[in-house]
Amino acid sequence: MRQKFFVLILSALICNGIIYFYFNVGLLFMVLLTIILLIGLANSIQHKHAILRNFPVLGYFRYLFEMIAPEIQQYFIERSTDGKPFSRNERSLVYQRAKNIDSTTPFGTQLNLKEHHYEGIKHSIFPAVVNEELPRITIGGKDCLQPYSASLLNISAMSFGSLSENAIMALNKGALKGNFYHNTGEGGLTEFHQQGGDVT
């Protein structure tokens, strides 16, 4: 490859010299070719880097791509769910919460739900045995004066402003029937939240 480099660069210099001699143009290009030739000569006689010795000028591109390889991997190849120890999605979630920005992402998950280590709730294709009592957890440790039992599944925060009064009443009565909590949301407590009984 060294021989091809010198043949090409010298041929280009000779052609450029002829053009400059007859037409008085191309001086800057000739200076540039001379600099490249000197770099190639210096690299061809050094013994420290084999790549630069065999590829006197093109070898620099190898080091350039090696230097920016992590950025190429991060911005063009790596998916938002890849990356160790934390993925881009996990980092974005931390940044958003640290800046008090809404961290909710719509349109479902980007994770592979079929992986064996995926944690989530999936529909069963076979009928399941219905528990007589739904699982609950006690809130409050041994030093808590008023511990209370909470259901693992509850109604999340949906304000009255985003739902109708009938929807609120239906949710509240369902919470009473299932003996779990009904979060009123940022809209606060209304009379429709109390149709089923006590609201927490």
Automatic annotation (TrEMBL):
Keywords in alphabetical order: Membrane, Transmembrane, Transmembrane helix
Pfam hit, one: Glu_synthase
Annotated Glutamate synthase domain residues: 151-195
GO terms of molecular function: glutamate synthase activity
Transmembrane residue ranges: 27-45
Superkingdom field: Bacteria
Gene Ontology biological process terms from the UniProt entry: glutamate biosynthetic process
PANTHER family according to UniProt: ARCHAEAL-TYPE GLUTAMATE SYNTHASE [NADPH] (PTHR43819)
Homology family: Belongs to the glutamate synthase family.
Protein name per UniProt: Glutamate synthase conserved region-containing protein
Protein species of origin: Flavobacterium xanthum
